[in-house]
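Q: A reviewer asked whether we had any structural model of the full assembly, not just the individual parts. We don't, so I'm hoping you can provide one. Inputs are below.
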Amino acid sequence: MNPSHPAVHPVEAPPTDVHHAPRVRMKDYQGMPGTLGGLALRLGQFCFAVVAFSIMLSTDDFSTVTAFCYLVAATVLQCLWSLALAVIDGYALLVKRSLRNSLVVSLFVVGDGVTATLTFAAACASAGITVLIGNDLRECDQNHCGKYETATAMAFLSWFMVSPSFLLTFWLLASR
Amino acid sequence: MNPSHPAVHPVEAPPTDVHHAPRVRMKDYQGMPGTLGGLALRLGQFCFAVVAFSIMLSTDDFSTVTAFCYLVAATVLQCLWSLALAVIDGYALLVKRSLRNSLVVSLFVVGDGVTATLTFAAACASAGITVLIGNDLRECDQNHCGKYETATAMAFLSWFMVSPSFLLTFWLLASR
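A: Here is a predicted structure for the entire assembly that you could use as a starting point for your response.
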């Protein structure tokens, strides 16, 4: 270069499509942690579990049947878990933060799997006993069959909303 | 080259580590379709479901309780499904063929999910009624409590062996 003849030659900027080595990464499906669909699922789980718990508690003799006591315990656990996850989802949405940490997602999968299994087991046991009382023994005149049925149905609905959460989070963990 | 002076010079073969553009692909975990572990899981599911079915059928009054009839139906379905999958796994092992077709894996996931849910629901309903008869009403002297308990436990064990099949196949589908 000739120092006595300095010149600034305008040069084109290099193309900036560097992309930072794009990883193949799945998009956010609604219902995954940290999405609006996920928050809606959590709130649905919580509401159905609260209704199931309240209805079962409003019968005075639920404690004489082990399965109904178990339903109350399982719905309490489901309420606490879904409420905690709803708060986390709401926070993630507010601060626009993605919940994609491997450890966090694993924790969600295990928690969802355990609570879904417990809630479903409680709902099935209660359904078996409700059908036994109502259809097989025909003793609905001495028992709160309607309330038992409604509480069982609400527990099933709560499980029905935990399952997509579990499957989508498991999918997210597997497809990382 | 001088044609009057032919010579064969031994040359080194080029390195053959061409790798054929290695795709990122998960390895075969034992328990997935087409593995020896998968075949063992299928045979376990089948055996436990057959034992649960046989024990429940050996009680003469199972048909008076809806949940016990449902257990019989669910274990029959589980037997058929697990036997079919065991045959497919055995065939895949014999001809050393990998079961990695997307459609086939999806079918396995749906079938495993449905049969696992049905078997678990039947086991939970039977468990609820068995506990009701044995612990809450204390009428084991008039009922086959031991047989009910054993059949329920076998159904739970069958479900316990379907779950890893379902989770591993779902993992395989998600991580493709």
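A: Points you may want to mention in the reply: Chain A has four helices and no strands. Helices of chain A lie at 36-58, 66-94, 102-136, 145-174.
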